[in-house]
Design goal:
The chain is α/β, with parallel strands linked by helices. Helix content is 42%, strand content 14%. A hairpin with an 8-residue loop joins strand 4 and strand 5.
């Protein structure tokens, strides 16, 4: 018998969002990991908010919603709020009931200023990594460092001489700027849109653009990100950030650090040895700082195979997490999002590892 197309809506529903989400949904293990990490951060949240006054939107809900923005490649916070309003799965993940009113998109900007100085993203990443360590997924001996370019949210038209006011040749929101034939460098010019971005090009024959640089320290067992940095894009940023992250590795025992040819410089190799780290760096054709003392060991070849997995992290972050081009302006905000995206990648990776182990 054919059913009737009745448009009368029911007044009441007796099913909760929890009952609507399938038990084998891929977000369920991720929600469990996120809840465990946020529970550890509860004392930090407690210190960030006043003890009296009107209750705020729980920071746990804001952070879960930002994870959804990363997982589902939602390009703006306005669109995220729209999805939270009618998407039942999103309401369940964030912890909202069917009837709760969704907040305004400006809440993210206001709370971001509160959360940035407290290193919440860093603490969240560490908490996720501690869960991976408890599950036996992390290596504490073998690591890889690498960096990638993140295009700034600033146009080349905004790159003007430091000692001059910008003089556009046309009006409107997108005025014409004629910089042909003009010598421009970071020493003499600065972006008025994002002064912290740097003019940089990937290599000879490549166009120069305004960039930041994101760096990751990856453990080699399962390819999980254990530390991150965002710096201005300079010719030495990768090596400086690499040494900084290696210095923060807990413990004093000897470790190995894999890296590509861009790290094959004497000062970097020497710096690693001072940190009790063996430099498993790919050798340049000429003038390599790596010699037979390192390359003769079988572990060197293993590190060279494993180090390429860091590109999987960068690829996921640039496509899924939408970090090919920065959504924010300023190093601090981009660093915050980069670190949160690394934690999101780890959760997806850990979920997949768990599925493989249980299957």
């Amino acid at each position: 018998m054919r059913g009737h197309d009745i448009h009368q809506q029911k007044v009441f529903s007796y099913l909760s969002p929890e009952a609507r989400v399938p038990q084998d949904h891929p977000l369920r293990p991720i929600r469990t990991m996120a809840d465990a990490a946020l529970k550890k951060l509860s004392p930090v949240f407690h210190e960030l908010y006043a003890k009296t006054g009107r209750p705020s939107i729980p920071p746990e809900q804001l952070l879960r919603s930002l994870l959804l923005q990363i997982f589902y490649t939602i390009r703006s916070e306005r669109m995220l709020v729209e999805q939270l309003d009618y998407n039942l799965l999103f309401r369940w993940f964030v912890g909202l009931s069917m009837d709760e009113t969704i907040w305004n998109h400006s809440v993210y900007s206001k709370n971001r200023e509160r959360l940035l100085p407290s290193d919440i993203a860093v603490l969240f990443l560490r908490s996720i990594c501690s869960q991976a360590e408890e599950a036996g997924l992390l290596s504490d001996d073998h690591f890889t460092v690498d960096g990638t370019l993140i295009e700034s949210w600033a146009s080349l038209k905004s790159f003007h001489p430091r000692d001059e006011e910008p003089h556009p040749s046309g009006g409107g929101r997108n005025p014409e700027v004629d910089f042909h034939g003009e010598k421009r460098s970071n020493a003499t010019h600065v972006s008025v849109s994002d002064p912290e971005s740097q003019l940089y090009k990937k290599g000879e024959g490549k166009e120069a653009r305004l960039y930041f640089m994101g760096h990751i320290l990856m453990e080699n067992r399962n390819g999980l990100a254990v530390d991150t940095r965002v710096t201005p894009a300079t010719g030495i940023a990768e090596r400086e950030a690499g040494l900084s992250m290696v210095a923060d590795v807990p413990g004093r025992k000897r470790i190995t650090i894999g890296a590509d040819k861009g790290y094959d410089y004497a000062n970097y190799v020497t710096g690693l040895r001072r940190l009790n780290a063996t430099p498993h760096v790919a050798q340049k054709v000429k003038g390599s700082a790596i010699d037979g003392r390192t390359t003769r060991h079988a572990g060197y070849a293993v590190s060279q195979r494993k180090r390429k997995r860091v590109e999987e992290i960068f690829g996921w972050m640039k496509t899924i997490a939408w970090l090919r081009k920065a959504r924010y302006k300023g190093e601090e905000k981009i660093d915050w999002l980069f670190t949160l995206s690394a934690a999101a990648y780890n959760m997806v990776r850990m979920r997949n590892l768990g599925m493989i182990a249980s299957g």
